[in-house]
């Protein structure tokens, strides 16, 4: 039913306000969130890095995320990337509490954005990797404001993973355990004496198990994840 709805509306009206014309009209682009706030899944996977989102995962953000992800609405890549850039500005900024460390904050060093990968099968079916696409757009935006930001596709899925939708937190964790691996090329990223902030990027934060598994894979090769930046967080799971 959702597919029919998308087929009906895609390309003809604004997904937010319904005005005929662009998929996201100029007025609605302007009211998209351009900042992030801290979120924690409840229950929260042990040791999860500080996590941030721009909005609760509900319409209209949900409709935008789905149209971009499942219906290749590439006109939305830039606005969604802009939203993610707003989250990243907060996620890489100075903050108090667990997870903050010396050297954090804008301008203190390069930021490495690591998109959470979809399985190769899902990428083939969709015809693109929406999180990678969005992360690159966010990096372009942050780079244009003077920061040194790079996107590194460090993670890949080892083999077939069952769809996460419909699984509870424990089910997701079991489904994911050990399934993400780190690609080669880490040594190219290392520079002596330069602290790099590693930030995981994903579209939706639900139970946190995907992000935690991605964090585990990076930590296993010695990379400390300083934050997790997502577009939206499933609200009912948050306090
Ligand atoms: Zn609109």
Structure write-up:
It is a single chain. The protein has about 240 residues and is an alpha/beta fold. It is built from nine helices and nine strands. The protein folds into two domains: about 1-30, no CATH class; about 35-70 and about 80-235, no CATH class. The strands form two sheets. Strands 1, 2, 3, 4, 5, 8 and 9 form a seven-stranded mixed β-sheet that branches. β8, α9 (about 210-220) and β9 (about 225-235) form a beta-alpha-beta unit. It starts with a helix and ends in a 6-residue tail after the last strand. Residues about 95-105 have low confidence and may be disordered. The structure holds zinc ion.
Describe the structure concisely.
This protein has nine helices and nine strands. It is an alpha/beta fold and 239 residues long.
Walk me through the topology.
Elements: H1 2-9, H2 26-31, E1 37-39, E2 51-53, E3 55-56, H3 61-71, H4 77-91, E4 111-115, H5 120-126, H6 130-144, E5 149-151, E6 155-157, H7 169-176, E7 180-182, H8 186-189, E8 197-205, H9 209-220, E9 225-233
Parallel strand pairs: 2-9, 3-9, 4-5, 4-8, 8-9
Antiparallel strand pairs: 1-2, 6-7
Helix pairs in contact: 4-6
The structure holds zinc ion.
